[in-house]
Amino acid sequence: LAILATQEELSDFLIEVERRAYKQAVFAIHDEHLALDIVQDSMTKLTVKYASKPVEELPLLFQRILQNTIRDYYRRQKTRSLWTTLFSAFTPGGDNQDNNQEDFDILETLQIKQESKEPEAQFEKAQLIELIEKAMKILPARQREAFLLRYWEEMSLAETAVIMNCSEGSVKTHCSRAVHTLASILKEKGVKL
Amino acid sequence: MNEQELGKEIAKLLDFSANEALKQSTLYRLQSARRAALENCQPTLEIINSGNGASVYGGHEQQFNVSKLILVLIALFAFALVSASYWQFLGKNRSAMDTTLLVDDISKETYSNDDYDLDNDLTLDTYIDNVRKLVDDFSTDDIRIDDEVELEDSISTDAHLEDNESDLGNDSSIEDARIDDEPVLEKESVPTEVRIDNELEEWLGSNK
Questions:
Q1: ipTM over 0.90
Q2: Chain A to chain B, count of Cβ pairs less than 8 Å apart?
Q3: How far B56 CA sits from the closest chain A CA (Å)?
């Protein structure tokens, strides 16, 4: 008999996955605000529709919801971009300055306290992370999805195939190509892991 | 370094960036998003009869059932069939009413009246009687027409003979001939029902 998730367990699960989910969305969409919206949408869908599911099923369900929400965003964006390109000639420019002022947030200026390590090593690590994150954004969507699910979320081949709605062989292929692409990018920049 | 090791190494770096390199504002927004999502959380516990009087708790939501859709479609089809057949039945009734209008002595005003109901006035027996009556009327009309034709033929021959004998254009003689023949015609064209009645009376009288 499967034990149903309580509200506390659901909350713990969301705390555990929310940051990684946010990063996944940022890699896919390249926009922090939209990524936050997508994560919130995914969380809401999970809590509204699947709150009564067992705890073991939550990671798979949440990842599936997240990936579907990202795909929905792509579809909407495609339609929207068509209309915006059609009517772009009629929109007046010069609102960028106001938008930048509205987007300013005092909390963004605050940095998280980090452990005091050697500053040179910290800087190298930060550069490496930045490089990897850029490489993740460059990766094709399916390869990035497969890589993140398999190595970051540590899901099995079968689970990844279910989330991606493809065969296990395809997941293997996507993962292999993603790792090769990342390795070649790192190699170009002279980074050796 | 093979594929898996490289992948895990990159995943570690990504973990580090997710856990320690996020802005405070982003973390705050994530927290508020989580709270908002949990506020919407309403685990629905329903008692579901699982058979043999046992009940289990579960959040099974009502799923869209294909069989229900099929049942609804069948019901709609049956309804359409019944309404179509009823429509046809009404059409047949209307044609029957037209027939009775020809047969019966119903006035047009009665027919055009919406309150007129065929079922109330027209039974099968009356309908058959009406048809018989119509057939009888037709048969008597045929007899009359035949007699008239014969009469015209006889008049024309007599008229020719008289023309030859007298060499006069006596139209009055033709008219006289017609007048003389007409009572004979009336005798012959007695309705069959009357004749039957007369024969029946004669037969009864002879038996007495």
A1: no
A2: 129
A3: 11
